[in-house]
Amino acid sequence: MSNDLESQLKAALRPVAPRQEFSEKLLAQVVLGNPRTKVRRLAPARLPLAWWLSASLAASVLLGFGVHEHLQERRMQQSGLEARREVLEALRVTSQKLQLAYEAVKSQSAPLPDEKTGA
Q: What is the pLDDT of residue 11?
């Protein structure tokens, strides 16, 4: 089926030579510079309006990017502060656990009453 489709496409899209009068008209327009092909320019009264519209569009795009960057920076700062808070909490818990372990070791290694008397 793909071969059939491919052959149909090749037949439909085969190169076709342009008619002689088309070629002549095209060459005449290129050589003589047909007035219909001139570039249209904005009227002088609309030129400042077009400039302001493009400048405001560019400013809006820049403002949008700036706001996006600012919000992203703020999110990163908030996540950094949250990570800092978690680390400090972990250090506090670790300190408490180490203090408990120290107290337990200290109470178990206290000298026995017999050792003080030297007997």
A: 81
